[in-house]
Amino acid sequence: MANEAAERLVEIKGLRKKFQRNEVLKGIDFEVERGKVACVIGASGSGKSTLLRCVNLLEWPDSGEIFFRGVNVLSRGYDTTTYRAKMGMVFQQFNLFNNMTALENCVAGQVKVLKKNRADAKETAMRYLEKVGMLQYIYARPHQLSGGQKQRVAIARGLSMEPEALLFDEPTSSLDPEMVGEVLQVMLDLASQGLTMVVVTHEMQFCKEVAHRVAFMADGVILEEGTPRDIFENPRHERTKTFLTRVK
Question: Residue 244 burial by CB count (10 A; 0-12/13-18/19+): exposed, middle or buried?
Answer without folding.
Answer: middle
